[in-house]
Amino acid sequence: MIKKRLGQILKQFSVGMRIIKTVISIYLSIVISLAINGQPTSAAIAAFICTRSSNKDSVDTGKTRAIGTLIGALFSLVFIIIIKYFNVELFTHGYYIMLSLLLIPIIKVTIWLKIPGATVSACIVVLITLLSYVKDGDPHVRIIYRFVDTIIGVIVAIIVNKVLSFEKDEKEGEKEKPDKDKGAIKESADTNEL
Question: Which candidate, 58, 67, 37, places its Cα nearest to that of 160?
């Protein structure tokens, strides 16, 4: 009943459910990230990216994002160990050359694992963590927080997408409605988009 009424109200203002789900996901991700002293930027971005029109798309995007983030975090941690071992100073030309070259094995690993969709997430994590997060405090902790914050955003987006989804209601409605009403159902389903 509440979902139906919310859908009617949103239709009047031409705001689709995907917009509402995205806003709620981002807000909750920020709040949770701040509660654990994380970096809410990563959580909010992950929530934004993973909130999709359907539950399946949201879960698929979330899995890819989580895997890419894990790969990027692992490569970032290894990179920090290597530059410390070789005594490479942060934010020098040598550091930037090594960082740029690091993207090659990351791309190759995602292709080798047959998850090319995770390539972008993995590379973004490496670039963000190694160009900004490592200068504040312990870089290992910052990289781990980056991973945790992203996972928070992914999980929140999937949960919000599932809780506020009209997919089940629409599928049940299609079974109950005669063929002439399918156009009306299709029309109301379109309001679930941006």
Answer: 58
Looking up tokens 């999980």 gives 155
Question: In terms of C-beta distances under 8 Å and separation of at least 24 residues, what long-range contacts does 141-148 make, across chains too?
Answer: 142/39, 143/73, 143/76, 143/77, 143/80, 144/73, 145/38, 145/39, 146/39, 146/42, 146/69, 146/73, 146/76, 147/69, 147/70, 147/73, 148/36, 148/38
How many structural domains compose the chain?
Answer: 1
pTM of the full structure: 0.76
Residue 2 lies in a domain: no
Domain assignment present for residue 81? The answer is yes
Parent domain of 100: 17-170
Domain assignment present for residue 194? The answer is no
CA distance 8 to 23: 18
The Cα–Cα gap between 25 and 105 comes to: 33
pLDDT digits (tens, 9 = 90+) for 92-127: 999 999 999 999 999 999 999 999 999 999 999 999
**CA nearest neighbour of 71 among 181, 185, 147:** 147
Q: Is residue 144 part of a domain?
A: yes
